UniProtKB/TrEMBL annotation:
<keyword id="KW-1133">Transmembrane helix</keyword>
<feature type="domain" description="ABC transporter">
    <location>
        <begin position="30"/>
        <end position="241"/>
    </location>
</feature>
<dbReference type="InterPro" id="IPR050611">
    <property type="entry name" value="ABCF"/>
</dbReference>
<comment type="similarity">
    <text>Belongs to the ABC transporter superfamily. ABCF family. EF3 (TC 3.A.1.121) subfamily.</text>
</comment>
<dbReference type="InterPro" id="IPR027417">
    <property type="entry name" value="P-loop_NTPase"/>
</dbReference>
<keyword id="KW-0812">Transmembrane</keyword>
<dbReference type="Pfam" id="PF00005">
    <property type="entry name" value="ABC_tran"/>
</dbReference>
<dbReference type="InterPro" id="IPR003593">
    <property type="entry name" value="AAA+_ATPase"/>
</dbReference>
<keyword id="KW-0067">ATP-binding</keyword>
<dbReference type="GO" id="GO:0016887">
    <property type="term" value="F:ATP hydrolysis activity"/>
</dbReference>
<keyword id="KW-0472">Membrane</keyword>
<keyword id="KW-0547">Nucleotide-binding</keyword>
<feature type="transmembrane region" description="Helical">
    <location>
        <begin position="20"/>
        <end position="41"/>
    </location>
</feature>
<dbReference type="InterPro" id="IPR017871">
    <property type="entry name" value="ABC_transporter-like_CS"/>
</dbReference>
<dbReference type="GO" id="GO:0005524">
    <property type="term" value="F:ATP binding"/>
</dbReference>
<protein>
    <submittedName>
        <fullName>NON-TRANSPORTER ABC PROTEIN</fullName>
    </submittedName>
</protein>
<dbReference type="InterPro" id="IPR003439">
    <property type="entry name" value="ABC_transporter-like_ATP-bd"/>
</dbReference>
Amino acid sequence: MQRGHLLSSQESRHWTDWVIWMKLLMTLTINLISVMHHSVIPGGPLMFKNLNFGIDLDSRIAMVGPNGIGKSTILKLIAGELQPTSGTVFRSAKVRIAVFSQHHVDGLDLSSNPLLYMMRCFPGVPEQKLRAHLGSFGVTGNLALQPMYTLSGGQKSRVAFAKITFKKPHIILLDEPSNHLDLDAVEALIQGLVLFQGGILMVSHDEHLISGSVDELWVVSQGRVTPFHGSFMDYKKILQSS
Ligand SMILES: Nc1ncnc2c1ncn2[C@@H]1O[C@H](COP(=O)(O)OP(=O)(O)OP(=O)(O)O)[C@@H](O)[C@H]1O
Ligand SMILES: [Mg+2]
């Protein structure tokens, strides 16, 4: 059943139930009473207190805030790379989370080609399926067989993005994904994110990326995460005037 089809009232009720069920199942609720940094130094600084927010399949959020405020820490908490010192980060057991950063683009095996790389990452998956997936991100034809050291930054980002989305994550976390990317590569990333049907939480200060791929802005400041009612430009104006 597809969204947007005219439904009978019974179908409509089933559809609504399904949406609610999916939301309950997939909603990733973060309810941190207090989070101390994972620093092993006893009595390290308390970074966040009373954080309480959720992310679901419809979330398309960019998180902004000054350097060192804890944005990457929040992503790591959500991904399970860090544990809060108190409170809970609840993740539905069914939720698949993927993490994308420049690190993943830099980590590509440049001597390999996109298809071989995907075959190594996902052994046993039919070649045609991997080709089709690469193709959906614009890595088609000969491009899929060229050594990756010959690919542009944008093409490499497409391969990295194809890799992290192959297992169909429900939520993608991106930490400053456009750092060191040229315009072409940022454009490729935006296209990938627009195609992606799931939740997005990214840390970025790239206006083009933010306006092209998300619709909500959260500000991290003084141990809190708050929704910002305005555009990224509005946020920048406030920063400049303060
Ligand atoms: N491995 C670590 N050990 C100890 N302290 C750390 C570690 N990683 C980060 N920190 C500290 O935790 C705080 C938050 O770091 P975090 O990387 O989350 O900030 P950020 O908001 O992502 O900053 P940026 O915008 O510079 O990426 C900073 O004060 C940082 O110095
Ligand atoms: Mg960071």
